[in-house]
């Protein structure tokens, strides 16, 4: 679904629901809390920081956030975003399922509407990240990582929430392929653990993508800054490009070292690689923009399912 035209009240409510989704798994709340604080700081958005505080202090309820959504289209978008965040790392936990059930009621969604959204998000989040073809020795991992980085930077240029939700499945597919090149077979849980050790949260990454689209789409001042200056498509693209680039090179170094990197070493290296990648985004922006022109929902789904090469 595209981000529709939304007023500032809609935007605040949508962001609040995204934050509720990120915090809904109690086991991840501490790490997600730190990531949300970082996102608010990077977006220079007092709204996100304030909404996060209210949620964590119990001063804002799911029902109150849902009341602020004015149209059926935006209520459906809120559920799609929440489902995408909860399912970013794969299967939905019991606390997340309880949250989604409560959210469906608060949004007054029919079973038919919510089922259609569930099916769409499941198609992306639960698609196999195992490529159909076997990896060959001598594959140029540097080139592969750059291609994934350009693709994910291009996905963030698109208006659809569908495109933002496809970024993590493509990152997982990349990590799987790098491990396979080094003779390591990884399932979803191992890849998730690897990225968590590096300090990267799945839910917060999707929250950031959605927040950039929401803030940029409001077209009004948030936190005393113009929305276009706070977050625009190019900034979101740079974030996705850099994150994917850093994940790929971290995975390559991790497996090349025989998986000897410690947690602190991985976190430090990930930060360093991310900073390096951000400086490369401008250089590769023309390629990212051209890649975006080739993408649509059908081609994105084919990429996630491994039915289309890139």
Summarize the structure in words.
The radius of gyration is 19 Å and the shape is globular. The protein has one domain (8-305). By secondary structure, the protein is an all-alpha fold. The chain has helices at residues 8-23, 29-42, 46-56, 62-67, 72-86, 94-106, 111-125, 141-155, 161-181, 188-197, 202-218, 227-230, 233-256, 263-293, 297-305, and strands at 221-222, 225-226. Helix 5 runs antiparallel to helix 11 (202-218), helix 11 (202-218) packs antiparallel against helix 13 and helix 13 packs across helix 14. It has 15 helices and two strands. Strands 1-2 form a two-stranded antiparallel ribbon.
Q: Roughly how many Å apart are the termini?
A: 23 Å
Number of helices: 15
Strand order of the largest sheet: 1-2
- Average per-residue pLDDT, rounded, comes to 84
Approximate strand percentage:
under 5%
Classify the secondary structure makeup into a structural class: mainly alpha
* Total strands: 2
Question: Please, how many domains?
Answer: 1
* Fraction of residues in helix: over 70%
Identify the notable features of this structure and list them briefly:
310 residues, mainly alpha, two-stranded antiparallel ribbon, 71% helix, globular
